[in-house]
C-alpha cells in the first residue's frame, strides 16, 4: 500500500499526516505520541477516528505538527486522520461523519478592535 497523506487544521494548528500500513505506531514531530501528548485525553482525541472504525493497530502514522496549542493540535490531527481514512475507504465516511470528525471546526480567535482592551470588552464607563 502506498502512503496516504492528509491535512487537518484547527484554530492556528496545522497537522500534515502520512498514513501507511503498519503496526499502529503514531509519531508526531519525530517523537512518540505518548511523549508529545502526555495527557491521556489528548491521546484519546488523536486515536478517536481509528477506534471508531476499529483499525487502531493496522496503520503507522507520521505527523508533522506546527502552530496552535496542544488541544488545537490534537483536534487537527483527528481531522487529518479522519480525512486519510476516508481516502483509503469511502465507506468509512458515514461512521466518521456521525461522530463529527469530518467537519473542520472553523472557530478561531476574534481579532482585537481598536480603542478596546480586547475583542469585545470595553473600558469602564464613567458618567462623571
Uncertain regions spanning at least 5 consecutive residues: none
Overall number of structural domains: 1
Q: How many DSSP-defined strands?
A: 5
Taking all Cα atoms into account, the compactness measure Rg is: 18 Å
Describe the structure.
The chain has 128 residues and is of the alpha+beta class. It has one domain: Ribosomal Protein S5, domain 2, CATH 3.30.230.10. The protein has 4 helices and 5 strands; from the N terminus they run E-E-E-E-H-H-E-H-H. Strands 1-2-5-3-4 form a 5-stranded mixed β-sheet. A hairpin with a 2-residue loop joins strand 3 and strand 4. Helix 2 runs parallel beside helix 3. The longest helix is centred in the middle third of the chain and has 19 residues. The radius of gyration is 18 Å and the shape is elongated. The N and C termini lie far apart (74 Å). The model has no long low-confidence stretch (mean pLDDT 94).
What topology emerges from the helices and strands here?
Layout: E1 4-10, E2 13-21, E3 26-28, E4 31-32, H1 33-36, H2 40-53, E5 59-66, H3 70-88, H4 93-99
Parallel strand pairs: 3-5
Antiparallel strand pairs: 1-2, 2-5, 3-4
Amino acid at each position: 500500500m502506498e502512503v496516504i497523506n492528509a491535512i487537518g487544521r484547527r484554530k492556528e494548528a496545522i497537522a500534515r499526516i502520512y498514513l501507511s500500513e503498519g503496526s499502529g505506531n503514531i509519531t508526531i514531530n519525530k517523537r512518540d505520541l505518548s511523549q508529545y501528548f502526555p495527557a491521556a485525553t489528548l491521546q484519546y482525541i488523536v486515536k478517536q477516528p481509528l477506534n471508531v472504525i476499529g483499525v487502531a493497530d493496522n496503520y503507522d502514522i507520521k505527523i508533522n505538527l506546527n502552530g496552535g496549542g496542544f488541544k488545537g493540535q490534537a483536534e487537527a490531527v483527528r481531522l487529518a486522520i479522519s480525512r486519510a481514512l476516508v481516502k483509503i475507504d469511502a465507506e468509512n465516511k458515514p461512521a466518521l461523519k456521525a461522530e463529527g470528525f469530518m467537519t473542520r471546526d472553523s472557530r478561531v480567535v476574534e481579532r482585537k478592535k481598536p480603542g478596546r482592551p480586547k475583542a469585545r470588552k470595553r473600558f469602564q464607563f464613567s458618567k462623571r
